[in-house]
Amino acid sequence: MLFANAGRLQYSISDIPNFLRARALAAKADAAIDQAKFQEVVAKHASEGYDSYKYFDKQLWLRTKMMRVVELGLDKSAHASVLDMGCGAGYFLYCCKYLGHRVHGLDLPDYEFYRDMIALFGISRTGFRIEPYKNLPQLGRRFDVITAHQICFNGHKTEWLWGAGEWDFFLGDLEENYLNPGGTIGLEFNEEPAIGFYPKEVRRYFESRSARIFRGRVILSQGNQRSRQARTESPLAAAGTTR
Length: 243
Description:
This protein is an alpha/beta fold.
């Protein structure tokens, strides 16, 4: 089904115009890929199992990631700089690049399939493992849009799932060192067993940041929130927790 996944609603009726636009743009982006080289990558990694195999459905991933592009307004914005954390096979960044944006990825350095896909798409990438309370590497530039999709670095499906403190440190690092003034941070969460996408304290924290929250996505725009320096109330206090 177009609007459901594993029994959970992914898109509503109001999303149909965006979905149709994303599908049309994805088809054009697909046509611009060197299909022979893509098949070479597939053939090289065909025996590696699900972790690689799931990315072989190029049309599905391009439609999905182009939908994220549309949700962020990147299909209609002027040329922007985009950083994707946990960029994986690079489909989201490729969609952004196809639309004329300047892109860079961040992900684990030692997965050869990801390296081959990133090379196919001609995307620059920095190898790095994201960990709680650890600053990201210096990239020598700032970005208008910073994203992370289907996040696993937050301790997904482990007993060490990030709380409000970890997210406050992480987002503070992004805002202070990587995000351009007025920029946007877009997060897409995986579901966690029994609790949904994140603990209640984390949702309260995002709400205290005036985030737009819908279906596992959290979008924070600096234009809709106080700067870190100007806050009169700690977001952690608003979330009901402390570091």
